[in-house]
Amino acid sequence: MSTLGESLVKIRLELGHRTAKSFFKYLESRSLECNYQYYVKIEKNIVSPSSNLVNQIAKALDTTMAEELIKSFCCDQFKSFSYLFESETSSPIKDQTKKGPEILQGQKKLTDKQVHVLAQNKDHYHLFLMMTLARRPQEISELESFKNFKKAIIALKNEGILIQDEKVISAASSEFVFPKAETESLKNHYALFDQWDKDFEEKFSLENILNKMMIRRISPRYLNLIQKQIEVLQDVVRISDESDIRHNNQVIQLQIRLSKGNIPG
Prior knowledge:
The chain has helices at about 5-15, 20-30, 35-45, 50-60, 65-75, 110-120, 120-135, 140-145, 150-160, 185-205, 220-240, and strands at about 105-110, 140, 160-165, 170, 175. The chain is mainly alpha-helical. Among the domains are: about 5-85; about 105-205, Arc Repressor Mutant, subunit A. Strand 3 and strand 4 (about 170) form a beta hairpin. The protein is globular and about 75 Å long.
């Protein structure tokens, strides 16, 4: 099994980046959080990066490359147990020079200005949702087939939310984090997003599978149990996305609204 540095160099060359500087810029644009000097030390096996940093690099690669990189990292960390991470036959690294990454980037926090751009109109927000859900870069011509997306692409590119590589577009991160609603402006933007979430199903012609509504009287002691069960359901949805990335070709929209109060009677 190759060392982490050797695997990085191999992957870099397979992706068509002859220099470490070129590959670093590619990773940096996809949320890698280290400087160039440190990255070079990783390639040369001078330093041992954190698991968080390796995860950021892996999320900018396709599935096969990411798995090989993680295996190399684990071998470096647990040398006495390296046999656990070695395959009988190493999976060939696919040439992704033109196709780009299938798995996009790590978590990235949106700025207030970026949120403001998303809130300028519904098309900006829906394009943002679509691109963060995409498993691979999308052809610009395909995106422009959606009404009003052409202007939205330009707006989101200008704010660094989307990245263009020749004729394809990808999100700068697959896991954007919204800032806390600490200002009146952000609160208003998030209220808009809540409304536009309801239109997402119609925009992309999602099939309605279930539509349920209940109004019941309950004892307050059951309210906490209900909330916990909803949290479990949300966790299941997250896990199904992250743990089976090879086959997650379906998109679901799950909206849950739980209200409480008192009424006469």
